[in-house]
Structure formats: C-alpha cells, structure tokens
Amino acid sequence: MSQFDVVVIGAGPGGYIAAIRAAQLGFKTACVDAGLNKAGDAPALGGTCLNVGCIPSKALLQSSEHFHAAQHDFAEHGITVGEVKFDAAKMIERKDAIVTKLTGGIKFLFQKNKVESLFGKGSFKGKNGDLYQIEVDNHGEKSVVEAKYVIVATGSVPRPLPLIDIDNVNVLDNEGALNLIEVPKKLGVIGSGVIGLEMGSVWKRVGSEVTILEAMPTFLAAADQQIAKEALKIFTKEQGLAIELGVKISEIKNTDNGVSVSYEAGGAQKTETFDKLIISIGRVPNTDGLNAEAVGLEKDERGFVKVDDECRTNLANVWAIGDVVRGPMLAHKASDEGVAVAERIAGQKPHIDFNSIPFVIYTDPEIAWVGQTEEQLKEAGIAYKKGTSGFGANGRALGLGKAKGTVKVLADAQTDRILGIHMIGPMVSELVAEGVMSMEFKASSEDIARIVHAHPTLSEVLHEASLAADKRALHG
Description:
EC number: 1.8.1.4
Structural class: alpha/beta
Protein name: Dihydrolipoyl dehydrogenase
Radius of gyration: 24 Å
Shape: globular
Number of strands: 22
CATH topology of the largest domain: FAD/NAD(P)-binding domain
Main location: cytoplasm
Family: Belongs to the class-I pyridine nucleotide-disulfide oxidoreductase family.
Number of domains: 3
Largest sheet: 7 strands, mixed
Subcellular location: Cytoplasm
Number of helices: 13
C-alpha cells in the first residue's frame, strides 16, 4: 500500500494547484481524479473548469464574437468581406484543441513537480492509526493509498431541475451547451447566471433565437444594480436576448418538435417550444460518493463540507477547498485556497481576504466587480461616496468600437478607503485586477486617482471614476 504525506482528492483548479504547491514544499504528494477527456477514452486533469467550464466557454465566446464582428462591425472599419459563413463543428473543434492542450499541461506540471497522478474516483475508506485511507476506484479496479494529510477538492456539479432529466441531447447542462455542432434555431435557457448569459450570448451571436427564463425577479441580483440594469438594457434592447424575470416554470416536456416549456411570467401563462434547452440554475457541491461517513467528515444540510476560515474540517489533518466548501464557486478562489492549505500544512501563515475576490461574467460587454455593492452598503448602513465614469468618451474604447459601459467606484465617506469597484465594459475582466490590488492594499479612491494611467487605455475610465468619487472628474 502506497503512503503519501498529502493526498488531494480532485484535480480541478483547486486540487491540482494544491497538489503542486504541496509537492513544492517538500511533501510526497498524490492527486486522485476520475476526469475523462471528451471521447471518454483517456484521463483528463483540470476538473470542470478546464474541461467543460471556464476555458471552453471562453473559447466559444471568442469565436462567436469574431463571427458577429465580421457580420456587423468590419464595415465600419472600412473592411469589406464576402458572405460570412459559420461552422459550429469547427468552432467546437478549436475549443476542444485548447482544452486538450491545457489538460495536457497539468499532466506535465505534475511530472515536473513530482506529483503522483492516480486515476479513479477517490473516497474515504477509513483510518490506519494517524493515516487516512483513500480508496481509488478505477472503473471497478480498486486500490487504497494512505496519507497523513488529505485535501478534499471534489468541486461541484450542475444543480438538477426536478421537472426534467438532462440528456445532453435536447436538454443540456453546461457540458452539452459547449458541444452543440449545429446552431439551434430556437434556444431556451433556464437561469440568467454566468453560464446562462455566456452560453446564451454565444449561440445568439451565431444565429439562435435565444430566450432566457429567470426565476428571480431581479436581474443579476448579486451584482451592483446600476451595472446590472445597464447590462439588461444592452443584452435585451441592443443584442436581442429575450430575458424574462420572475418566471415560474410548471412543466417541461421533450416532444417530437423540441422541448416544450410551460411557465408563468408577468401574470401571464406561456408555453414555448425550443430546439434545445440549457439548464443553468446553479451548482451543488460534489460530495456524493466521497464516503465522508467512513471517517466522520461533517457536511452541512446542503452537502458542503464544513470548514473554518482556514479550510480546516472537523477532522485533524483533513482540509477542504473550492466549490465543495462555503464561499463563491470560482476557480480562482479554489486555486488560492489550494495554495493556502498546502502552505498551512507546511506551517506557514497565508491569508485570503474573501472581500477581495473578483467576479467576472464574460459577456460582451463584460461585467466584473470586487467588494461590496451599493445595495449592500445601504443595507449595512455604511456611509459611502461614489464616482462613475463611462467608456463612451474613452479614446481606446472608441478605437476598439466598444464604447459602451460604466465603471463605478464606492469608497468610505470618512476614510475614502475603497469598498467596491463595479464595471461593465470592454475587457473589464482585466481592469478589475487593479481594483482587487487596491482593496488588498487598503487603498483609497484618491490613491487610484493619483496613480498615472497610460493614455489611451481603458484603465483611464477607472482613474476617472476614482476622481469622480472625490467630485473632481476631469473628463465628465
């Protein structure tokens, strides 16, 4: 029976990073993962994020943006093209190649850092003294390894919708939505979160008629509502996404003509039939099959592994990170927790500030934020000041042909310390990093206002919003 200092269960963005960092710190480390490639004939590291989540979705978003630009935007630049054709299968092929390259890269990193990769589903089997026994089930071929420390990083899975089963033929989850090889004439999406908006955007750009059904009465309830309202206007009135809020779905049926959805919205009963239907109503922790009971690992009523602020579970030397624990289900949050746990095992004292974790939605325009929203500050009774600036007069944005959007800076009314930064606009997924760094270093809006920002750049809009927070905007 093989023995390790550290065994990580799961090779997603939390698990594989935790394994690499543990190995770098001198621990004999193994990582257990049951992920398979798209063909199902070989192991594939990287978890949901690399295989059927963050990475492939961004590849499709970029492809669809190019197609849309060729159809609608090139002429403005003096570029004339002939008939523009779209090949969905080719787009999927490109996406698959990117996924294969990156998952192979993790395999290389494991080899480089001397992490032993164990293929199969990992679960607790019991204890042998101070060592935890982890069973590795490779399609019925079982083996057991032992470890002093265990890091649970099993991630999350799509939340099921009780009204219908996902078959990834007509009723799709995130994986099915990423593998359509034909453009559906009518596409329905249940859920207007990150997955719903991004996948709806992809297929709308390449020709689908897209309807998004959202149960919540508020669009993007987690985002600052000034930004959310601007996004809703752009997505619906300018881009043609049909987004219905406050929806109550009563029935979903697979029929000969497609997928029929009956629902109530705005007091009216409606029935729509879609060629394909994407279910994107959130994700739930992937703890089924972990056999937590074998060692007494505690989970809460929703299936999350219980941890403290430093990712310790109720068991000595057992840790849990990423989507399987409290906090936002974000790949970068999982990765940082993985690094922190490996360093804590080594006796170090790393720190993660959950208030400084950025959120991004990769629509066009992109949406990004860090820190508290204006609604949260009002609810908490915190006195604040705000500054806003738009991309409409920004030279770089105009040159890109992407001059829609706003940056909003929220700062403490007395101390001027930044409390939140919220953005909608071009490449704000990159701009938000300045906001994250500012919050990590306890900056004030004046600090950003006094930093020289290159001209012409998109970052000048953040600079201008920071000036506006102190009522000294120069361009607005």
